[in-house]
Amino acid sequence: MLSRHFTPPAPRTGLDDGLHGTQPAWENWSGQQHAQPSAKWLPPDEDALRRQVRDATNVRVVGAGHSFTPLVPTSGAILSLDRLSGLISHDVQTQQARMWAGTRLFDAGPLLHGIGQSMPNLGDIDRQSLAGALSTATHGTGITLPCIAAGATALRLVTAQGEVLECSRDSDTDLFRAAAVSLGALGVITQVTLQNMPSFRLRERVQLLPLDKLLPDMDEWVRQHRHFELLVFPYSRLAIVKTLDVTEQPPSGEAQGADSDDAMLRLSCELTRWLPGVGRRLQHMIGRFIQPTERVDWSHRIFASSRNVRFNEMEYQVPLATGVSCLDEVCTAVSKNKVDVFFPIEFRFIAADDYWLSPFQGAQGEARCSISVHQYHKQDYRPLFAVAEPVLRHYSGRPHWGKLHTVDAADLRSLYPDLERFLRLRNELDPHGKFLNPYLRQLFGMATS
Protein backbone atom coordinates (compact mmCIF):
# COMPACT_ATOMS: atom_id res chain seq x y z
CA MET A 1 0.00 0.00 0.00
CA LEU A 2 1.01 3.62 -0.46
CA SER A 3 2.65 5.25 2.52
CA ARG A 4 2.37 8.96 1.91
CA HIS A 5 1.29 12.15 3.59
CA PHE A 6 -2.29 12.91 2.67
CA THR A 7 -5.09 15.17 3.81
CA PRO A 8 -8.48 13.48 4.32
CA PRO A 9 -11.38 14.85 2.26
CA ALA A 10 -13.27 17.76 3.76
CA PRO A 11 -16.77 16.86 5.02
CA ARG A 12 -19.62 17.32 2.57
CA THR A 13 -21.57 20.51 3.02
CA GLY A 14 -24.52 19.66 0.82
CA LEU A 15 -23.67 22.62 -1.43
CA ASP A 16 -23.38 22.30 -5.20
CA ASP A 17 -19.81 23.42 -5.91
CA GLY A 18 -19.96 23.08 -9.68
CA LEU A 19 -22.15 22.96 -12.75
CA HIS A 20 -24.20 19.79 -12.94
CA GLY A 21 -26.80 18.33 -15.24
CA THR A 22 -26.92 18.04 -19.01
CA GLN A 23 -24.24 20.23 -20.51
CA PRO A 24 -23.45 21.58 -23.99
CA ALA A 25 -21.03 19.57 -26.08
CA TRP A 26 -17.32 20.20 -25.61
CA GLU A 27 -14.78 20.45 -28.43
CA ASN A 28 -11.08 21.12 -28.57
CA TRP A 29 -9.38 24.13 -30.16
CA SER A 30 -9.08 22.61 -33.63
CA GLY A 31 -12.66 21.30 -33.59
CA GLN A 32 -11.48 17.71 -34.18
CA GLN A 33 -12.30 16.28 -30.72
CA HIS A 34 -15.83 16.35 -29.27
CA ALA A 35 -17.57 15.18 -26.12
CA GLN A 36 -21.01 15.22 -24.54
CA PRO A 37 -20.16 15.06 -20.82
CA SER A 38 -22.70 14.29 -18.14
CA ALA A 39 -21.55 17.37 -16.22
CA LYS A 40 -19.08 20.25 -16.41
CA TRP A 41 -17.52 21.24 -13.12
CA LEU A 42 -15.77 24.50 -12.31
CA PRO A 43 -14.86 24.13 -8.62
CA PRO A 44 -14.17 27.42 -6.80
CA ASP A 45 -11.50 25.92 -4.52
CA GLU A 46 -9.59 22.75 -3.80
CA ASP A 47 -12.03 21.48 -1.16
CA ALA A 48 -14.90 21.62 -3.64
CA LEU A 49 -12.74 19.87 -6.22
CA ARG A 50 -11.89 17.08 -3.78
CA ARG A 51 -15.53 16.45 -2.97
CA GLN A 52 -16.49 16.34 -6.62
CA VAL A 53 -13.66 13.98 -7.52
CA ARG A 54 -14.32 11.73 -4.53
CA ASP A 55 -18.00 11.32 -5.42
CA ALA A 56 -17.53 11.04 -9.19
CA THR A 57 -17.75 7.82 -11.17
CA ASN A 58 -15.66 9.12 -14.06
CA VAL A 59 -13.96 12.48 -14.53
CA ARG A 60 -11.49 14.04 -16.95
CA VAL A 61 -9.71 17.35 -16.40
CA VAL A 62 -9.80 19.90 -19.21
CA GLY A 63 -7.41 22.80 -19.75
CA ALA A 64 -7.41 25.00 -22.82
CA GLY A 65 -8.34 22.22 -25.25
CA HIS A 66 -5.06 22.58 -27.15
CA SER A 67 -4.43 18.83 -27.24
CA PHE A 68 -5.34 17.22 -30.53
CA THR A 69 -5.60 13.69 -29.13
CA PRO A 70 -8.84 12.56 -27.41
CA LEU A 71 -7.48 13.02 -23.89
CA VAL A 72 -10.62 14.81 -22.67
CA PRO A 73 -13.68 13.20 -24.32
CA THR A 74 -15.77 11.28 -21.80
CA SER A 75 -19.40 10.56 -21.08
CA GLY A 76 -18.61 11.29 -17.43
CA ALA A 77 -17.79 14.66 -15.89
CA ILE A 78 -15.38 17.24 -17.28
CA LEU A 79 -13.57 19.29 -14.64
CA SER A 80 -11.99 22.67 -15.32
CA LEU A 81 -9.28 24.21 -13.12
CA ASP A 82 -9.89 27.73 -14.41
CA ARG A 83 -10.88 29.01 -10.95
CA LEU A 84 -7.81 27.47 -9.33
CA SER A 85 -5.50 30.02 -10.87
CA GLY A 86 -2.84 32.44 -9.72
CA LEU A 87 0.30 32.79 -7.63
CA ILE A 88 0.23 31.17 -4.18
CA SER A 89 3.68 32.00 -2.79
CA HIS A 90 7.25 32.60 -3.86
CA ASP A 91 10.80 32.59 -2.53
CA VAL A 92 13.19 35.34 -3.56
CA GLN A 93 16.31 33.42 -2.57
CA THR A 94 15.57 30.16 -4.37
CA GLN A 95 13.68 31.77 -7.29
CA GLN A 96 10.85 29.30 -6.77
CA ALA A 97 7.12 30.02 -7.03
CA ARG A 98 4.07 28.01 -6.01
CA MET A 99 1.15 28.37 -8.43
CA TRP A 100 -2.34 27.01 -8.84
CA ALA A 101 -2.28 24.44 -11.62
CA GLY A 102 -5.19 26.00 -13.52
CA THR A 103 -3.12 29.13 -14.23
CA ARG A 104 -2.90 29.75 -17.96
CA LEU A 105 0.63 30.22 -19.23
CA PHE A 106 -0.22 33.65 -20.64
CA ASP A 107 -1.15 34.70 -17.08
CA ALA A 108 1.81 32.95 -15.45
CA GLY A 109 4.36 35.05 -17.37
CA PRO A 110 3.19 38.47 -16.12
CA LEU A 111 2.55 37.12 -12.60
CA LEU A 112 6.08 35.76 -12.32
CA HIS A 113 7.57 38.85 -13.94
CA GLY A 114 5.86 40.91 -11.24
CA ILE A 115 7.96 39.13 -8.59
CA GLY A 116 11.15 39.28 -10.67
CA GLN A 117 11.00 35.68 -11.91
CA SER A 118 10.60 33.95 -15.24
CA MET A 119 10.14 30.36 -16.38
CA PRO A 120 13.36 29.30 -18.18
CA ASN A 121 11.51 28.26 -21.32
CA LEU A 122 8.06 28.17 -22.91
CA GLY A 123 6.53 26.92 -26.12
CA ASP A 124 5.22 29.13 -28.91
CA ILE A 125 1.63 28.79 -27.66
CA ASP A 126 0.73 30.10 -24.20
CA ARG A 127 -3.00 29.32 -24.05
CA GLN A 128 -2.52 26.08 -22.07
CA SER A 129 -3.07 25.65 -18.36
CA LEU A 130 -0.02 24.92 -16.24
CA ALA A 131 -1.36 21.45 -15.37
CA GLY A 132 -2.11 20.67 -19.00
CA ALA A 133 1.34 21.77 -20.14
CA LEU A 134 3.01 19.57 -17.54
CA SER A 135 0.79 16.54 -18.07
CA THR A 136 1.48 16.34 -21.81
CA ALA A 137 5.22 17.27 -21.66
CA THR A 138 4.62 20.48 -23.61
CA HIS A 139 7.92 22.11 -24.55
CA GLY A 140 9.71 24.94 -26.29
CA THR A 141 13.06 24.71 -28.03
CA GLY A 142 16.67 24.79 -26.85
CA ILE A 143 19.14 21.92 -26.72
CA THR A 144 20.01 22.66 -23.07
CA LEU A 145 16.40 23.33 -22.04
CA PRO A 146 13.99 20.50 -21.10
CA CYS A 147 10.19 20.48 -21.32
CA ILE A 148 8.06 22.70 -19.07
CA ALA A 149 7.40 19.84 -16.64
CA ALA A 150 11.12 19.60 -15.88
CA GLY A 151 10.85 23.03 -14.25
CA ALA A 152 8.55 21.63 -11.57
CA THR A 153 10.10 20.80 -8.19
CA ALA A 154 6.93 19.76 -6.32
CA LEU A 155 3.30 18.88 -7.04
CA ARG A 156 0.03 18.60 -5.17
CA LEU A 157 -2.21 15.81 -6.45
CA VAL A 158 -5.85 15.04 -5.65
CA THR A 159 -6.46 11.29 -5.94
CA ALA A 160 -9.58 9.34 -6.89
CA GLN A 161 -10.48 9.09 -3.19
CA GLY A 162 -10.32 12.85 -2.76
CA GLU A 163 -7.06 12.64 -0.83
CA VAL A 164 -4.25 15.14 -1.33
CA LEU A 165 -0.75 13.84 -1.95
CA GLU A 166 2.35 16.02 -1.90
CA CYS A 167 5.38 14.88 -3.88
CA SER A 168 8.62 16.48 -5.03
CA ARG A 169 12.05 15.79 -6.44
CA ASP A 170 13.24 15.13 -2.87
CA SER A 171 10.19 13.43 -1.35
CA ASP A 172 8.13 10.57 -2.80
CA THR A 173 10.17 10.80 -5.98
CA ASP A 174 8.51 7.87 -7.74
CA LEU A 175 5.10 9.52 -7.51
CA PHE A 176 6.63 12.80 -8.65
CA ARG A 177 8.33 11.26 -11.70
CA ALA A 178 5.06 9.57 -12.63
CA ALA A 179 2.61 12.39 -11.89
CA ALA A 180 4.38 15.33 -13.54
CA VAL A 181 3.78 13.88 -17.03
CA SER A 182 0.75 11.65 -16.52
CA LEU A 183 -1.98 12.65 -19.02
CA GLY A 184 -4.31 13.23 -16.08
CA ALA A 185 -4.43 9.46 -15.44
CA LEU A 186 -3.18 9.52 -11.83
CA GLY A 187 -5.26 12.32 -10.39
CA VAL A 188 -5.81 16.06 -10.54
CA ILE A 189 -2.75 18.29 -10.21
CA THR A 190 -3.89 21.35 -8.23
CA GLN A 191 -0.64 23.10 -7.29
CA VAL A 192 2.84 23.23 -8.81
CA THR A 193 6.11 24.60 -7.45
CA LEU A 194 8.27 25.93 -10.28
CA GLN A 195 12.02 26.45 -10.31
CA ASN A 196 12.37 29.77 -12.09
CA MET A 197 15.17 32.22 -12.83
CA PRO A 198 15.43 36.01 -12.59
CA SER A 199 13.42 37.83 -15.25
CA PHE A 200 15.35 38.12 -18.50
CA ARG A 201 15.02 39.59 -21.98
CA LEU A 202 15.44 37.82 -25.30
CA ARG A 203 16.46 39.01 -28.74
CA GLU A 204 14.47 37.30 -31.48
CA ARG A 205 15.85 37.09 -35.01
CA VAL A 206 13.85 35.66 -37.90
CA GLN A 207 15.15 35.06 -41.43
CA LEU A 208 14.51 32.85 -44.43
CA LEU A 209 17.30 30.53 -45.63
CA PRO A 210 17.64 27.50 -47.94
CA LEU A 211 17.28 24.25 -45.99
CA ASP A 212 20.12 22.59 -47.90
CA LYS A 213 22.54 25.26 -46.65
CA LEU A 214 21.30 24.86 -43.07
CA LEU A 215 21.50 21.08 -42.76
CA PRO A 216 25.33 20.74 -42.89
CA ASP A 217 25.75 23.47 -40.26
CA MET A 218 22.86 22.49 -37.99
CA ASP A 219 25.05 21.63 -35.02
CA GLU A 220 26.73 25.03 -35.16
CA TRP A 221 23.38 26.84 -35.27
CA VAL A 222 22.07 24.85 -32.31
CA ARG A 223 25.13 25.38 -30.13
CA GLN A 224 25.44 29.10 -30.86
CA HIS A 225 21.91 30.04 -29.77
CA ARG A 226 19.94 29.51 -26.58
CA HIS A 227 16.88 28.77 -28.70
CA PHE A 228 16.83 27.64 -32.31
CA GLU A 229 14.02 26.36 -34.51
CA LEU A 230 13.12 25.91 -38.15
CA LEU A 231 9.84 26.16 -40.02
CA VAL A 232 10.51 24.25 -43.22
CA PHE A 233 8.48 24.46 -46.44
CA PRO A 234 9.11 21.04 -47.99
CA TYR A 235 8.26 21.94 -51.60
CA SER A 236 10.56 24.96 -51.83
CA ARG A 237 13.03 23.64 -49.23
CA LEU A 238 13.12 27.09 -47.73
CA ALA A 239 13.15 27.46 -43.95
CA ILE A 240 12.16 30.23 -41.58
CA VAL A 241 15.00 30.33 -39.05
CA LYS A 242 14.12 31.65 -35.61
CA THR A 243 16.75 32.22 -32.92
CA LEU A 244 16.37 33.62 -29.40
CA ASP A 245 19.25 34.75 -27.21
CA VAL A 246 19.48 36.43 -23.83
CA THR A 247 20.26 40.13 -24.09
CA GLU A 248 20.61 43.21 -21.91
CA GLN A 249 19.15 45.42 -24.64
CA PRO A 250 15.93 47.27 -23.75
CA PRO A 251 12.58 46.08 -25.15
CA SER A 252 12.03 47.23 -28.72
CA GLY A 253 8.24 47.17 -28.69
CA GLU A 254 5.49 44.97 -30.07
CA ALA A 255 6.07 42.58 -32.92
CA GLN A 256 4.90 43.95 -36.24
CA GLY A 257 2.81 42.26 -38.87
CA ALA A 258 1.09 39.54 -36.82
CA ASP A 259 -2.37 40.34 -38.21
CA SER A 260 -1.17 40.42 -41.81
CA ASP A 261 0.79 37.18 -41.28
CA ASP A 262 -2.36 35.47 -40.05
CA ALA A 263 -4.34 36.79 -42.99
CA MET A 264 -1.72 35.54 -45.46
CA LEU A 265 -1.57 32.12 -43.78
CA ARG A 266 -5.35 31.73 -43.75
CA LEU A 267 -5.64 32.79 -47.40
CA SER A 268 -2.84 30.42 -48.44
CA CYS A 269 -4.49 27.54 -46.57
CA GLU A 270 -7.88 28.26 -48.15
CA LEU A 271 -6.34 28.36 -51.62
CA THR A 272 -4.52 25.10 -50.91
CA ARG A 273 -7.78 23.58 -49.75
CA TRP A 274 -9.80 24.52 -52.83
CA LEU A 275 -7.17 24.35 -55.57
CA PRO A 276 -5.13 21.12 -55.51
CA GLY A 277 -1.46 21.79 -56.20
CA VAL A 278 -1.56 25.50 -55.44
CA GLY A 279 -0.01 24.98 -51.99
CA ARG A 280 3.14 23.67 -53.63
CA ARG A 281 3.40 26.76 -55.82
CA LEU A 282 2.70 29.09 -52.90
CA GLN A 283 5.57 27.56 -50.94
CA HIS A 284 7.94 28.55 -53.74
CA MET A 285 6.72 32.14 -53.40
CA ILE A 286 7.25 32.37 -49.64
CA GLY A 287 10.44 34.39 -50.07
CA ARG A 288 8.37 37.33 -51.28
CA PHE A 289 6.59 37.59 -47.94
CA ILE A 290 9.17 36.67 -45.28
CA GLN A 291 11.56 39.49 -44.47
CA PRO A 292 14.31 39.43 -41.81
CA THR A 293 13.07 40.81 -38.50
CA GLU A 294 14.56 41.46 -35.06
CA ARG A 295 12.98 42.45 -31.76
CA VAL A 296 13.75 42.44 -28.03
CA ASP A 297 11.35 41.93 -25.14
CA TRP A 298 10.91 40.16 -21.82
CA SER A 299 11.06 36.41 -22.28
CA HIS A 300 7.38 35.63 -21.62
CA ARG A 301 6.41 38.15 -24.30
CA ILE A 302 8.86 36.77 -26.85
CA PHE A 303 8.24 33.03 -26.50
CA ALA A 304 4.58 32.93 -27.53
CA SER A 305 3.29 33.52 -31.04
CA SER A 306 -0.22 34.39 -32.11
CA ARG A 307 -1.95 31.26 -33.43
CA ASN A 308 -5.29 32.36 -34.86
CA VAL A 309 -5.35 29.99 -37.84
CA ARG A 310 -6.50 26.63 -36.53
CA PHE A 311 -4.86 23.35 -37.49
CA ASN A 312 -4.41 19.71 -36.48
CA GLU A 313 -0.94 18.50 -35.60
CA MET A 314 1.26 15.41 -35.38
CA GLU A 315 4.58 15.59 -33.54
CA TYR A 316 7.29 13.07 -32.72
CA GLN A 317 10.49 13.36 -30.70
CA VAL A 318 13.39 11.56 -32.40
CA PRO A 319 16.95 10.93 -31.14
CA LEU A 320 19.30 13.86 -31.54
CA ALA A 321 21.82 11.89 -33.61
CA THR A 322 19.29 11.20 -36.37
CA GLY A 323 17.08 14.28 -36.13
CA VAL A 324 18.47 16.11 -39.15
CA SER A 325 18.22 13.01 -41.34
CA CYS A 326 14.65 12.42 -40.20
CA LEU A 327 13.66 16.01 -41.00
CA ASP A 328 15.20 15.76 -44.47
CA GLU A 329 13.37 12.48 -45.11
CA VAL A 330 10.01 13.83 -43.92
CA CYS A 331 10.36 16.80 -46.27
CA THR A 332 11.24 14.49 -49.15
CA ALA A 333 8.28 12.19 -48.40
CA VAL A 334 5.79 15.07 -48.32
CA SER A 335 7.17 16.51 -51.56
CA LYS A 336 7.35 13.15 -53.33
CA ASN A 337 3.72 12.33 -52.44
CA LYS A 338 2.52 15.81 -53.47
CA VAL A 339 0.44 16.28 -50.33
CA ASP A 340 -1.72 19.39 -50.45
CA VAL A 341 -0.43 21.38 -47.48
CA PHE A 342 0.79 24.91 -46.93
CA PHE A 343 1.80 24.79 -43.25
CA PRO A 344 5.57 24.36 -42.77
CA ILE A 345 7.21 21.51 -40.83
CA GLU A 346 8.46 22.57 -37.41
CA PHE A 347 11.87 21.42 -36.16
CA ARG A 348 13.09 22.01 -32.59
CA PHE A 349 15.54 20.70 -29.95
CA ILE A 350 14.70 19.67 -26.36
CA ALA A 351 16.92 18.51 -23.50
CA ALA A 352 16.30 15.21 -21.69
CA ASP A 353 14.44 14.70 -18.40
CA ASP A 354 13.70 11.74 -16.09
CA TYR A 355 9.89 11.53 -16.00
CA TRP A 356 8.53 8.05 -16.63
CA LEU A 357 6.19 9.02 -19.49
CA SER A 358 8.08 11.97 -20.89
CA PRO A 359 8.91 11.66 -24.61
CA PHE A 360 12.29 13.16 -23.67
CA GLN A 361 13.12 10.66 -20.94
CA GLY A 362 16.36 8.80 -21.52
CA ALA A 363 18.96 6.94 -19.51
CA GLN A 364 21.82 8.66 -21.32
CA GLY A 365 20.38 12.13 -20.95
CA GLU A 366 20.53 12.74 -24.69
CA ALA A 367 18.52 15.62 -26.13
CA ARG A 368 15.87 14.93 -28.76
CA CYS A 369 14.66 16.65 -31.90
CA SER A 370 11.01 17.53 -32.22
CA ILE A 371 9.43 17.28 -35.69
CA SER A 372 5.87 18.53 -36.16
CA VAL A 373 3.59 18.48 -39.19
CA HIS A 374 0.44 20.63 -39.30
CA GLN A 375 -2.63 20.59 -41.50
CA TYR A 376 -5.24 23.35 -41.81
CA HIS A 377 -8.27 22.43 -39.71
CA LYS A 378 -10.65 22.50 -42.70
CA GLN A 379 -8.51 19.98 -44.60
CA ASP A 380 -8.27 16.25 -44.02
CA TYR A 381 -5.06 15.75 -42.06
CA ARG A 382 -4.84 12.00 -42.74
CA PRO A 383 -3.01 12.12 -46.12
CA LEU A 384 -0.25 14.29 -44.65
CA PHE A 385 0.08 12.33 -41.42
CA ALA A 386 0.05 8.99 -43.27
CA VAL A 387 3.08 10.13 -45.26
CA ALA A 388 5.03 11.65 -42.35
CA GLU A 389 4.36 9.20 -39.53
CA PRO A 390 6.12 6.11 -40.99
CA VAL A 391 9.30 8.16 -41.31
CA LEU A 392 9.01 9.54 -37.78
CA ARG A 393 8.40 6.08 -36.34
CA HIS A 394 11.22 4.57 -38.41
CA TYR A 395 13.59 6.94 -36.61
CA SER A 396 12.44 5.64 -33.19
CA GLY A 397 10.27 8.67 -32.57
CA ARG A 398 8.08 9.05 -29.51
CA PRO A 399 4.78 10.86 -30.06
CA HIS A 400 3.83 14.06 -28.28
CA TRP A 401 0.99 13.12 -25.92
CA GLY A 402 -1.15 16.02 -27.06
CA LYS A 403 -0.62 15.52 -30.80
CA LEU A 404 -2.27 13.02 -33.14
CA HIS A 405 -0.54 9.68 -33.70
CA THR A 406 -1.28 5.97 -34.21
CA VAL A 407 1.02 4.52 -31.53
CA ASP A 408 -0.71 1.74 -29.57
CA ALA A 409 -0.14 -0.06 -26.27
CA ALA A 410 2.36 -2.53 -27.74
CA ASP A 411 4.40 0.30 -29.24
CA LEU A 412 4.45 2.20 -25.94
CA ARG A 413 5.99 -0.74 -24.11
CA SER A 414 8.95 -0.69 -26.46
CA LEU A 415 9.31 3.10 -26.33
CA TYR A 416 8.91 3.66 -22.58
CA PRO A 417 10.97 1.43 -20.25
CA ASP A 418 9.09 2.74 -17.18
CA LEU A 419 5.58 2.27 -18.58
CA GLU A 420 4.81 -0.80 -16.47
CA ARG A 421 5.90 1.03 -13.32
CA PHE A 422 3.60 3.88 -14.25
CA LEU A 423 0.64 1.55 -14.85
CA ARG A 424 1.15 -0.26 -11.55
CA LEU A 425 1.18 3.05 -9.70
CA ARG A 426 -1.85 4.23 -11.64
CA ASN A 427 -3.77 1.11 -10.67
CA GLU A 428 -2.79 1.56 -7.03
CA LEU A 429 -3.96 5.17 -6.94
CA ASP A 430 -7.09 4.69 -9.08
CA PRO A 431 -8.06 0.98 -9.13
CA HIS A 432 -11.50 1.67 -10.62
CA GLY A 433 -10.25 3.84 -13.48
CA LYS A 434 -12.04 7.01 -12.41
CA PHE A 435 -9.57 9.17 -14.38
CA LEU A 436 -9.55 7.03 -17.52
CA ASN A 437 -11.55 7.51 -20.71
CA PRO A 438 -11.85 5.13 -23.69
CA TYR A 439 -8.79 6.63 -25.37
CA LEU A 440 -6.52 6.16 -22.36
CA ARG A 441 -7.76 2.61 -21.80
CA GLN A 442 -6.92 1.78 -25.39
CA LEU A 443 -3.57 3.61 -25.27
CA PHE A 444 -2.49 1.78 -22.12
CA GLY A 445 -3.85 -1.58 -23.30
CA MET A 446 -6.40 -1.81 -20.50
CA ALA A 447 -9.74 -3.62 -20.65
CA THR A 448 -12.83 -1.46 -20.84
CA SER A 449 -14.80 -1.59 -17.62
From TrEMBL:
GO CC term (a single one): membrane
Assigned keywords, A-Z: FAD, Flavoprotein, Oxidoreductase
Gene3D superfamilies registered for this protein in UniProt: 3.30.465.10, 3.30.70.2520, Uridine Diphospho-n-acetylenolpyruvylglucosamine Reductase, domain 2 (3.30.43.10), Vanillyl-alcohol Oxidase, Chain A, domain 4 (1.10.45.10)
Cross-referenced PROSITE patterns: FAD_PCMH
Record bears the keyword Lipid metabolism: no
Annotated region (Disordered), positions in chain: 1-23
Gene Ontology terms for molecular function: D-arabinono-1,4-lactone oxidase activity; FAD binding
InterPro entries associated with the record: ALO_C (IPR007173), FAD-bd_PCMH (IPR016166), FAD-bd_PCMH-like_sf (IPR036318), FAD-bd_PCMH_sub1 (IPR016167), FAD-bd_PCMH_sub2 (IPR016169), FAD_lactone_oxidase-like (IPR010031), Oxid_FAD_bind_N (IPR006094), Vanillyl_alc_oxidase_C-sub2 (IPR016171)
UniProt domain FAD-binding PCMH-type: residue ranges: 33-199
SUPFAM superfamilies referenced in this protein's UniProt entry, alphabetically: FAD-binding/transporter-associated domain-like
Flavoprotein recorded as keyword: yes
PANTHER family found in the cross-reference section: D-ARABINONO-1,4-LACTONE OXIDASE, L-GULONOLACTONE OXIDASE
Protein name: FAD-linked oxidoreductase
The organism's taxonomic lineage, starting at the top: Bacteria, Pseudomonadati, Pseudomonadota, Gammaproteobacteria, Lysobacterales
